[in-house]
Write a structure and sequence with these properties.
The complex is a heterotrimer of chains A (about 575), B (about 400) and C (about 350). With about 575 residues, chain A is mainly alpha-helical. Chain A has helices spanning about 10-20, 35-65, 75-85, 85-120, 125-130, 140-150, 170-190, 195-205, 210-220, 220-240, 240-245, 255-265, 265-300, 310-340, 365-395, 400-410, 420-430, 445-455, 455-465, 475-480, 485-495, 495-515, 530-540, 540-570, 570-575; strands spanning about 340-345, 350. The chains are: A mainly alpha (about 575), B alpha+beta (about 400), C alpha/beta (about 350).
């Protein structure tokens, strides 16, 4: 009646048995219609990322090894890059800027996050919300604002004691503003995950506050700090907007690509700089993944959340620090807004709307609406594609190697600087024999590029959300003979609605504010607001550039506000099940 | 729509009357590999129509793997599974005929109770009225008629698991798979729900497999128990068989508690402890000279030291009481046996025992009926306790 | 089955959407025109053209001279532009060298000054107007800083102007390039580079666009910007405290020019645009921003525009500039683009 191999203890028997079977071949389970549909979807997703990411990126190293005529010349381009002191200086400059900015931002963000998580200072929510402001504008905006604050006609130019804001000083300050919210988010997470029991233990052992800080607080936030450091470093080294506006003649890698391609008409050298720019990005990305893995392991243990106790001196000190940071952010944004209304800075400070007449400076409100159109498409299409692909990765059945490949591919965009992706898109899509050539110079290529550019964060958000859903929904629906896509539509999607909405807002905001990737692939019909900020600043129409930047900021804030309302109202209705 | 071996829809819940001898479900030489690790090793099983079978074993023993292979959720690497005369082992899950309930309930949180239950019914192409009637009927059956429009999160764990059961039964599958359905519930609810599940199963006559690591649950619910360990089936039998006549030390110790004492074999009705020969139940020829002498804690009686009586039907072991736990209707006493240098566990009725004997430090004599002394194989360098880590009193000590 | 179907429909819809976004549903002919004209000139130019040819719609692609040139070269294998209207002649010569221009003799070509056309019988390009280098000098900031008004290129190298001069980067800006090529022609190569060495000491920064130095001067960010005359005049009109100065050694200048891009699918419409570009009406438009235009007798004085422009314009050798463009830029870059030490 039953095979009773009672000999469970002699392991040798089983091993021998295994060896005799040689390569263990699994029986091929028959595939159902559903399996075919799902596998087709997975393959389609892989194909999508292959065409929209891998192939374009692949052109980059190839171009870097070719001369202008397209002949293979080995590493000659790299040799000439390194031997050119002017170009090589950019590498050093970029590193210098990145290190300083990272140091400054980490310190400020740590203090701020400490204030938010470890003190009882008032107004935490408001302070936190205000720090997010720089996320909703292109990185060009803080830089433009710095011209008005610290430029030669700046309100506070004395602060610099004669030093020029155009150059490393301006870049570092601008970067700090732009990167701050990104880093703060990571820091707050890292610091909120500390275990209160460790503090109680330290207290019992009568450790001094300073000792507690170095033995408990710092170590437990260690991985968060490292991760935040990598994020800041990568953002700074790959950002293009800030050095473009306020860098003066201080050359960095990101602006080099632009100059090589646009100014020198030297696409091969652009590819070389791209490849070089990819290195630190890929390195810090890999290091960050490693650290994150460790961090996850550390956090999975159950800890008691730390609840700060009131301490007037400490609370007020941190309130002061946080207020200072927030005022600086408000000052920078406020100045840009104010300057956009000033008739003729600094000679005629009367307020007027003339700078919003973008047509008079060769820009157009059309560009603003183009941006909105693109952002809406990116949000709609991007959310759909990313979330469904993440679903296939996370909840798909069998076919594991391909699903893992899909996951791996989804992680790549995070390591690819926007400019590199943009340039790769020119190389790839503008070949006349590329069957996808028809999307070149259209809205479609901008949408595709932006979806891919911001893919990873959305993918990770989706995967996190999907992981929180019961892993057996798919099994249950298979047993009930309901196809997986029905369950995706009726269950998984509605249950993940908060995450889905968040992704779409993230995509919208980033599509509105991005400059770096799209700068190479926009066309006259698809000129974008963010690029026109750059162009107007470039042409010296700084006030109008500030105006357009403020417009983008307000739009993103409005969308974020709508998202908030939606989360409050409509989610309350459709997600009634969340309330007990 | 998908081709599937769907049973014709008969009127709801007619108990299946056919009870022929052919097994309803056959598992033939099934292997499951994860890389080089074999989670199932040549497992074969037969389950009769209408039977309630429990897969019992410690975590990692392969019981859930086997269940998922039967469902097609994680197909076997090799081997064959036959259900109702049809080979199903190569079919995807949606073409097999089963309902499944998970430990996590896996209820759809955004659907009401009624919609959860109705979820699988749309694959049957029923009219709206039919669906409604069916849902109402199921809700009545599980006694939650007033919960139809609530969301799962508004219900207790026990209620949620009953909804999950109703959902699995809604499409009238001929095989019900329960994957640790009660593990997430508190003790009281668990007791209540296991009776209910059993009652419902009997009423519907549906062949049921339940995976559990709780031996008490298995003993209470199953028609037959399949004890598994390290990817193989150790024993298949009724609860009584498995409990009274375990086939080896692992089963003995995993199902209930068993005192295991290291001895050597001697003939087929005696074992030897150094010079002493101990009578025991007749046993088959052993593969090794080393053996375990085993008895259940409840078969021993506790007597004053030195008091020996009926030598023919009892064996006596001298020892010292180490400590006593009061368990309500019985006492659990740990006694250190001087002959074995090892302690054993004895359960005695709190009413029929001289409690003064049970004080720690007291010298006592344990009387064990010869008929209850069993012998199992003992391998060197091995723990008989397996992974279960129950109240095992056996140690690795090997007699010289 | 229904769901599979709706799934397919959704996919098809997505593809359709992508296709829609990439298609230009347009009844009339649409010309893609690449230009480096000043942004505010685009609308009036297109409007005037459409009064004569209402069926042809102009789609502008505007950027700095260097960028437009780079774009055209990048798209050499797959040209996106139909027509170039308003790009430096030196750039067009580079493109002609790459065989990217479609020769065409527009109607009325013979009426233009001979200087303003390709020498070939069927010219590859035709000129529109000339723009010339000039200095934008912020009088208010100069007074604050005690700077004298410069009158010559040589003046700009005086130590008193250290850190007060801004000029366009010749790699990206057409104006920047005409400055550099004019100095090399005016002073001779060796003395030209020597002049730039000395000028470099006084430069606060090199900007990307040609009009930005003048705008920086207008905003008081820098007292002196090397730019072009029209920009200075228009900013002064808007109320900037600027003087527009012509250095006395002579003025570098370049020609705005137009051409048809080889391989265009809209040759007929492109030719109509070329016909318009050489017409008197078009030249009247040019004359609003340029003191010198291709059609003789059309030019008129422009407010705030110094009057003696034509006299100061040097004898520019476009062929020389174009054929040496790459060489000049790489020399310039290796000498000055490394101005990267933080100051």
């Amino acid at each position: 009646m039953s095979g009773m191999a009672s000999d469970h203890l002699s392991g040798g028997f089983q091993n021998k048995e295994l060896e005799e079977q040689g390569a263990i071949k699994a029986d091929k389970v028959r595939l159902s219609r559903q399996d075919y549909i799902q596998r087709a979807a997975v393959l389609l997703a892989v194909l999508f990322l292959f065409v929209a990411l891998i192939l374009p990126l692949g052109t980059m190293p190839i171009k870097s090894l070719q001369n202008a005529e397209g002949d293979f010349i080995g590493l000659a381009n790299f040799a000439s890059y390194i031997s050119n002191p002017a170009l090589f200086q950019s590498v050093l400059n970029s590193l210098q800027i990145a290190l300083i900015s990272t140091g400054v931002v980490l310190t400020l963000a740590f203090l701020f996050a400490y204030g938010l998580t470890r003190t009882c200072m008032p107004g935490k929510k408001t302070l936190r919300a205000l720090t997010l402001l720089p996320l909703f504008a292109p990185s060009l905006l803080p830089a433009i604002s710095l011209i008005y604050l610290l430029g030669n006609q700046g309100i506070f130019k004395e602060v610099l004691m004669g030093a020029s804001v155009y150059g490393p000083i301006g870049i570092v300050i601008g970067m700090c503003f732009w990167v701050f919210p990104h880093v703060l988010m990571i820091m707050v997470t890292a610091l909120s995950n500390s275990d209160a029991r460790l503090y109680e233990a330290a207290q019992v052992m009568k450790a001094s506050p300073l000792r507690t800080f170095f033995t408990v607080t710092l170590p437990s936030a260690k991985y968060g700090l490292i991760s935040a450091g990598f994020v800041a470093f990568t953002l700074v080294i790959t950002d293009f907007g800030v050095p473009k506006v306020i860098g003066g003649d201080f050359k960095v890698l990101a602006t080099d690509i632009y100059k090589q391609v646009v100014g020198q008409q030297n696409f091969q050298m652009g590819a070389v700089v791209s490849v070089i720019l990819l290195l630190p990005a890929v390195f810090s990305f890999a290091a960050d993944r490693l650290v994150q893995k460790k961090q996850v392991a550390m956090l999975s243990a159950r800890a008691v959340p730390y609840i700060p106790k009131p301490n007037p001196v400490k609370d007020n000190l941190f309130l002061a620090i946080c207020l200072l940071v927030v005022s600086a952010i408000l000052l920078v944004i406020g100045t840009a807004a104010y300057a956009s209304f000033v008739s003729f800075w600094p000679y005629n400070m009367e307020l007027s709307l003339q700078h919003y007449d973008f047509e008079s400076v060769g820009s157009s409100w059309d560009y603003y609406f183009n941006s909105i159109e693109m952002a809406v498409w990116v949000a709609l299409i991007g959310t759909g594609i990313v979330f469904f692909n993440a679903y296939l990765v996370e909840k798909g059945r069998a076919f594991e190697p391909v699903r893992n490949l899909l996951h791996l591919m989804a992680m790549i965009p995070m390591a690819v600087p926007g400019m590199v992706l943009g340039l790769a898109y020119i190389f790839f899509f503008n070949q006349p024999d590329n069957p996808l050539n028809f999307i070149y110079a259209t809205m479609a290529i901008l949408v595709l590029n932006s979806v891919v550019h911001f893919y990873t964060v959305c993918h990770l958000t989706s995967v996190t959300a999907l992981k929180q859903i019961d892993g057996e929904f798919e099994s249950v629906s298979a047993s009930l003979k309901i196809p997986f896509y029905v369950t995706f539509w009726r269950i998984t999607l509605p249950v993940s609605l908060p995450a889905v909405l968040e992704i779409s807002v993230y995509l919208f905001v980033n599509a509105m504010t991005t400059v770096s990737a799209v700068i190479f692939i926009y066309s006259s019909d698809t000129m974008l607001a963010s690029i026109s900020v750059l162009n107007m600043d470039e042409a010296g129409n700084t006030a109008s550039a500030a105006g357009m930047g403020v417009l983008i900021l307000l739009t993103c804030l409005t969308v974020k506000g709508l998202h908030w309302l939606l989360s409050q109202q409509i989610l309350g209705l459709t997600q009634g099940w969340r309330n007990r | 729509m998908m081709a599937q071996p769907q049973q014709p829809i008969t009127s709801a819940f007619t108990p299946l009357v056919k009870r022929n001898n052919a097994p309803y479900l056959q598992v033939n030489k099934v292997w499951k590999h994860y890389g080089n690790f074999a989670a199932l090793k040549d497992v074969s099983l037969e389950i009769k129509d209408g039977e309630f079978v429990c897969f019992l074993g410690p975590s990692g023993c392969g019981k859930t793997t086997l269940l998922r292979a039967i469902a097609g959720l994680d197909p076997q690497s090799r081997g064959e599974i036959v259900q109702g005369g049809q080979t199903i082992s190569l079919l995807p899950p949606e073409q097999r005929d089963f309902g499944i309930v998970f430990q996590s309930y896996a209820l759809f949180p955004n659907l009401t109770v009624a919609k959860n239950i109705a979820y699988g019914l749309r694959s049957l192409k029923l009219s709206r009225n039919q669906i409604e009637a069916k849902v109402t009927e199921l809700l009545n059956t599980i006694g939650l008629s007033d919960m139809a429009y609530k969301y799962p999160a508004q219900l207790s764990g026990g209620q949620q698991q009953r909804i999950a059961l109703a959902r699995a039964l809604a499409t009238e599958p001929s095989l019900l798979l329960l994957d640790e359905p009660l593990s997430a519930l508190d003790a009281r609810v668990r007791l209540h729900l296991r009776q209910e599940i059993r009652k419902l199963q009997r009423k519907l006559g549906i062949t049921t497999i339940m995976v559990t690591h709780d031996q008490e649950e298995a003993l209470a619910m199953a028609d037959r128990i399949v004890v598994m360990n390290h990817g193989i089936v150790e024993q298949v039998g009724t609860p009584e068989e498995v409990y009274r006549r375990p086939i080896n030390a692992f089963v003995a110790n995993f199902v209930g508690t068993m005192n295991l004492l290291p001895v050597k074999v001697s003939g087929n009705k005696q074992v030897r402890l150094q010079e002493r020969l101990i009578n025991c139940r007749r046993y088959k020829k052993q593969q090794t000279a080393a053996a375990w002498l085993a008895f259940r804690p409840e078969v021993a009686a506790i007597k004053p030291a030195g008091l020996h009586g009926d030598d023919k039907h009892y064996e006596y072991f001298n020892g010292t009481v180490l400590h006593t736990e009061f368990m309500g209707n019985f006492l659990r006493i740990e006694v250190n046996l001087s002959d074995f240098q090892q302690s054993v566990q004895v359960d005695v009725s709190s009413q029929h025992t001289d409690l003064t004997l049970c004080m720690a430090g007291h010298q006592v004599s344990l009387a064990v009926p010869v008929n209850e002394l069993q012998v199992f194989d003992r391998y060197d360098n091995s723990a008989a306790t397996g992974d279960a880590g129950h109240s095992a009193v056996a140690t690795d000590e090997v007699a010289a | 089955m229904n769901l599979t179907k709706s799934f397919k429909t959704a996919t098809a819809g997505l593809v359709g959407v992508m296709a829609l976004m990439s298609a230009n549903v347009q009844a009339a002919t649409e010309l893609k025109v690449y230009t480096a004209l000043e942004s505010e000139q685009l609308r009036p130019y297109a409007k005037a053209f459409n009064q004569q040819y209402p069926d042809i719609k102009i789609k502008w692609v505007r950027d700095s001279t260097g960028i437009v040139t780079a774009k055209l070269l990048a798209e050499k294998n797959n040209p996106q532009a139909d027509v170039i209207w308003g790009l430096a002649a030196t750039s067009l010569l580079v493109l002609k060298d790459q065989d990217m221009l479609q020769p065409y003799a527009p109607k009325g070509l013979e009426k233009l000054s001979p200087k303003f056309r390709d020498k070939a019988a069927t010219p590859s390009w035709v000129g529109m107007d000339a723009w010339m280098a000039s200095l934008c000098f912020n009088t208010i900031e100069a007074k604050k800083l005690g700077l004298p008004k410069p009158t010559s290129w040589e003046d700009l190298t005086k130590p008193v102007y250290r850190g007060h001069v801004v000029m366009p980067n010749p790699a990206s800006s057409g104006t920047g390039f005409l400055d550099v090529s004019s100095w090399l022609q005016l002073f001779g190569e060796d003395k030209g580079w020597d002049y730039m060495d000395r000028l470099h000491n006084n430069i606060a920064r090199y900007t990307h666009s040609g009009s930005k130095p003048c705008k920086l001067a207008a905003a008081g960010e820098a007292p002196i910007g090397i730019s072009f005359a029209y920009r200075g005049a228009s900013l002064k009109e808007k109320g900037a405290p600027l003087d527009v100065i012509y250095p006395q050694e002579g003025l570098g200048w370049d020609m705005g020019a137009a051409s048809i891009v080889k391989g265009t699918n809209n040759l007929d419409a492109a030719q109509k645009l070329m016909d318009f570009a050489v017409s008197k009406e078009a030249n009247k438009l040019y004359s609003k921003s340029f003191a010198v235009v291709a059609y003789p007798g059309v030019a008129q004085p422009i407010p705030h525009f110094p009057v003696d422009a034509e006299r100061l314009m040097m004898n520019n050798d476009f062929e020389w500039s174009a054929s040496n463009r790459k060489q000049i830029l790489s020399t310039w870059q290796s000498r000055y683009d490394s101005k990267s030490e933080p100051k």
